[in-house]
Amino acid sequence: MNRIAGRAAEWTSQVITSESRSFLESLRPSATFREIELAHASPRSPVIEYVLDPETAAANFDEKDFGIAIVGHTHVPAAFWLVDGRIGLSKFPSTADGLAIPFRAPGEPGAARVLLNPGSVGQPRDRDPRASWATLDLETQEFVVRRVEYAIEKTQGAIQQAGLPEELAERLETGW
Questions:
Q1: What contacts 2, CB < 8 A, 6 or more positions away?
Q2: pTM of the predicted structure, to 2 decimals
Q3: I need a surface site. Which of 77, 113, 124, 140 has the fewest CB within 10 A?
Q4: 82, 58 in Cβ contact below 8 A?
Q5: pLDDT tens-digit map of 114-146
Q6: Are the beta carbons of 91 and 51 closer than 8 angstroms?
């Protein structure tokens, strides 16, 4: 963990309520919902692995049997897919709102296996400060990344008032 993240984690451990701590401790870092793998970081390493490149995605496809996986951790919206032994990647450009990635459902002929990341709400890493979220429509077979504005200045003020590293507040404005 880098210095900035370490300071934020230390601050959080000091201010979190016992109820919130209990709730968070009850959560698992991965789960399956309607045959969709969900993980904080990656299917093969649910807590710490960053899936930012095709090689890491390929290792996940090799080690874990899933048709669709949704991950986070990187704060970068992206879609990786594996079809007929070839891997593809789409990182969602910051200028695109509602950019969709179509995929075939697992079990269909020539079906792609997909690993999807909706990005983040806060602390972005893709040069776009807006909140990033996504919808996954299994019927139309589309993963759509969307962006919305939020009160960055208010959040920056709360970060500064808490005495957290200034870089955390700056990142919200730059998206990097």
A1: none
A2: 0.86
A3: 140
A4: yes
A5: 999 999 988 889 889 999 999 888 888 788 888
A6: no
